[in-house]
Every structure is written in structure tokens, then in C-alpha cells.
Amino acid sequence: MALEIEHKFLLANDSWRQHVSHSVRYRQGYLSSAVTSSIRVRVSAEHAWLNIKSATIGTCRHEYEYPIPLTDANEMLDNLCLKPLIEKTRHFVNIDGFQWEIDEFEGVNQGLCVAEIELPEIGVAFTKPAWLGQEVTDDVRYYNNALAQNPYCNWQHT
């Protein structure tokens, strides 16, 4: 069984940008988003994956990911996935032996940036960089499958 142990945070400022090692643009869509799980297709410039993730809210979820042909994935995104698709650039930042992934959303979710850290096991301590803001791990609105159903542009912003 594959487990994803992850924390999600908003960003307090842009100082993380000076630490980016590399970035990858993703396009992803959901074939299914149900009470128990979601099934996602994700494409980068050269690779594609099918991902199945439990719909559990919190730091620990079941996750399975498999490489698939890029042509098939693009056809699924265009013809089978629910719209709107999630478009984002993921920036990678390494701090104290951990890799942070900062998702800078585009399209209907433009203006939203979320930082994530995956841990090897539950309870592992990690340093919170000064650029981190509020933790939103338990807020379902910040999950990608929720953003596909209720995009950031539809939220009430104050």
C-alpha cells in the first residue's frame, strides 16, 4: 500500500523564489472524483501519469501512481476529464534535506500558491521556512480535485 504523508501551506511572501532549484509545468484533470477516491491524469512536457488517491482529508492518504503514454494522457485530458483542468507550475525548493513543492496555479485558479512537503513517515519533524503562511492541510478547498470543482476564481476574496 502506498501512503502520501503531506502538509499543505499558504505562502506568507515570495522569498521562496530565490531558492527554487527547478520548475515543471503540469496540466491535470480528473476522470472521477468520488466520496472514496479521485482518479487523475497528469501531464508534464515529457511524461504522464495516472494517479488514484483516497479522498481522506489530512496529512495521510492512500496514493497510487502509474506512468502512462503521453499521447493517451493528452487525449484523456482533452476528451474524458472533467473541466476545468488544473494548470500549474510546480517549483521545487530544497531545505534541510526536504523537498518543498510550491504550486503556482494558472487559469481559473490563478492567484493561488500552495506549498507542500511530503514526509517519509507520520510525525517526522521539519523546519518551517519563514516564507510559509497558514497550514491548510485540513481545508478541502485547497485540494486539487476540489479546485477542479470549485476554482479559486469563484471564491469570495476579501
From TrEMBL:
Gene3D superfamilies, alphabetized:
Hypothetical Protein Pfu-838710-001
**Coiled-coil annotation: which residues?**
none
Q: Which superkingdom, per the lineage?
A: Bacteria
The UniProt record lists the CYTH domain at 2-149
Record CDD domains: CYTH-like_CthTTM-like_1 (cd07891)
Which residues are responsible for catalysis? Y30
Pfam families per the UniProt record, alphabetical: CYTH
Q: Note the SUPFAM superfamilies from the entry.
A: CYTH-like phosphatases
Q: What is this protein called?
A: CYTH domain protein
Q: Which organism is it from?
A: Methylocucumis oryzae
